[in-house]
């Protein structure tokens, strides 16, 4: 392990270096054995809630044209699709019938984790006056996070057109496993289905009204109702409705960003598209800054993973009916080396 940082300057208000010069886990370091025990202490009924949408929702590619629904196919041996395949084809004595499939999946199409390799920034980490493309803790584009054409791609067995996060990839989250205490904020109970950008003041009012306490190392989940609207569209998302549906966090609100820093939350998760409003910018002639300020703050500066498009409805309904907000959250991503995001089938246990 190196003792010196890979940067000379760190972004103002960042945690770079605080968890060590080589850290790739950020605030997930706060998911200590103590934190897991605090989560386990919230298991009183033994009821488990699955927190994933069907991974073929939202449906189509309208929510984000780059992201396509999963394409599921049988594996195939010399042109024979392995679906309902009688193994007697290979040996007359075999009685087995076998199905075996594969998927081409956009990792951030549906319920997902964003890693710290998902969003970085132009920043002068070398202190030489020239900004470069850099990620959490000073990891570099083209050196640590590789894309098409990067020479190092060959070292990870990728073809020229491939991509591979040598550092900050989702496998680091998978090895950590991501388990601890979850705390749910029910924004939908206060805001309903109207689009509202929730800033610091409003969030504090809601936490206060619902007596929700957030402590260092908690994973914080926001139920907005957005995933319910998506589900109601039956894989035909209507962007006119979705662009104006349900609460989002206001990433432009500096006080909210400061609260994310001060609260010590280990992860931010929502049932909506990007946790924050996207695009955040809504005025012409705005100053130069991130299109996704909460992403920049969490993924680039603090090392706080973002969970998006989770299915929180059943959990939120149960918690509200039982006057509770805390639970055990278990949410490992796929252990897929080199990926910058991952589907997640999280479980909340109350
Ligand atoms: C975007 O590219 C908008 O990413 P995310 O899935 O994090 O919202």
TrEMBL record:
SUPFAM superfamilies: Putative cyclase. InterPro entries: KFase/CYL, KFase_sf. Gene3D superfamilies: Putative cyclase. Residues 1-23, 60-84 are annotated as: Disordered. This is Cyclase family protein. It comes from Piscinibacter gummiphilus. The lineage of its organism: Bacteria, Pseudomonadati, Pseudomonadota, Betaproteobacteria, Burkholderiales.
């Amino acid at each position: 392990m190196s003792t010196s940082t890979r940067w000379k300057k760190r972004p103002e208000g960042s945690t770079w270096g605080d968890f060590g010069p080589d850290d790739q886990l950020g605030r997930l370091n706060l998911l200590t054995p103590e934190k897991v025990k605090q989560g386990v202490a919230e298991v009183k009924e033994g009821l488990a809630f699955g927190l994933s949408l069907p991974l073929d929702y939202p449906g189509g590619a309208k929510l984000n044209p780059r992201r396509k629904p999963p394409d599921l196919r049988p594996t195939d041996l010399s042109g024979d699709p392995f679906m309902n395949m009688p193994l007697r084809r290979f040996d007359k004595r075999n009685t087995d019938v076998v199905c075996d499939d594969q998927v081409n999946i956009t990792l951030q199409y549906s319920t997902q984790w964003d890693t710290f390799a998902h969003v970085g920034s132009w920043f002068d980490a070398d202190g030489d006056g020239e900004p470069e493309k850099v990620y959490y803790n000073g990891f570099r584009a083209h050196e640590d996070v590789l894309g098409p054409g990067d020479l190092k791609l060959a070292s990870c067995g990728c073809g020229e057109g491939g991509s591979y996060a040598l550092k900050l990839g989702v496998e680091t989250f998978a090895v950590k496993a991501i388990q601890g205490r979850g705390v749910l904020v029910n924004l939908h109970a206060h805001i309903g289905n109207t689009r509202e950008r929730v800033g610091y003041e409003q969030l504090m009012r809601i936490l206060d009204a619902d007596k929700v306490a957030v402590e260092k190392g908690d994973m914080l989940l926001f139920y907005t109702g957005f995933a319910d609207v998506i589900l109601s569209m039956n894989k035909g998302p209507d962007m006119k409705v979705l662009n104006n549906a349900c609460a989002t966090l206001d990433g432009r609100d500096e006080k909210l960003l400061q609260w994310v820093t001060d609260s010590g939350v280990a992860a931010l998760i929502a049932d909506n598209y990007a946790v924050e409003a996207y695009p955040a910018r809504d005025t012409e002639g705005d100053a130069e800054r991130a299109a996704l300020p909460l992403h920049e703050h969490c993924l680039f500066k603090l090392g706080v993973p973002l969970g998006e498009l989770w299915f929180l409805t059943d959990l939120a309904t149960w918690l509200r009916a039982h006057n509770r907000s805390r639970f055990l959250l278990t949410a490992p991503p796929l252990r897929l080396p080199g990926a910058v995001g991952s589907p997640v089938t999280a479980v909340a246990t109350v």
